[in-house]
Amino acid sequence: MKCISVYTDNFELFSDVFEKVIEIDLQENDERELEGVTVSDSGEVPKHYLERMSVKPEVVVMKDRNKGITILQHGKVFEILIPSDADEIEAASL
């Protein structure tokens, strides 16, 4: 899964930039500022990262079922987890 980090603890601000964040073409380890918020591509994360993070009490897990995206919020960062083509192929074969 591709991970994009959005550095803010303001849910309203995150909601305002969410669509723009998933539309911009960030390369791995690329960092940009969007409406005063730092956004960076954190590369690929393994599937067990989501499983490990979702059991922590300080982590909020949100899903955009239409897009297949999972959002983790903890501390002052939102992490947008976007399935890669390999993830979708794996899920289809189950």
UniProtKB/TrEMBL annotation:
Organism: Paenibacillus vini
Domain of life: Bacteria
Protein name, as recorded: NAD/NADP transhydrogenase alpha subunit
